[in-house]
Amino acid sequence: MKCPKCKDIQLSRKGKAMSPERHSGPLFCTSCGGVWVSNNDLDRISEFSSVVSDDIDISGIEKDRDSMTGLCPNGHGIMIRAKVHLEPHFYLEKCSSCGGIWFDYGELNRIIENNLNENLAMLWTLSWQKIQREEKGKEYYHNLNKELLGDDIYNSLLELSRKLKDHPHQLRALALLHHEL
Ligand SMILES: [Zn+2]
Ligand SMILES: [Zn+2]
User: pTM for the whole thing?
Assistant: First the structure.
């Protein structure tokens, strides 16, 4: 099985990540530090964090691996990317045929650290992508207002809007505010 990102590098298993009885476990690329996790192993990704980044010299790793879309190491053709909305963001790739997922160097640990390993398949659903975008938008909107208005006014306004939320005369309150200004 060849690395989706490196030319002619065979993926290999290493050390304790291998479970001989199942002939499974993650496959590594010794050149780019990427990891292939087959569909059967996706439910135990958190076990792989300690073995992922050992003994790879990352100084020579090209930074733009993440922008390439690779081929499934099992020969199923081009994989499907999904954006992971962390800061900074990155992309994972999944084979729609065998369900395996490719993690570029460091991505597996970031997934585990952010507790995204439980629902990894969700990343490839459109609704999830949409929710993430909306959350980002909401965050941006709030941060912008906070920055422009200052913490004090921003917090007072939020508190006021909480009080007015179900108030029968909330329009009157808005009009009053407008009038006073
Ligand atoms: Zn590689
Ligand atoms: Zn595949």
Answer: 0.68
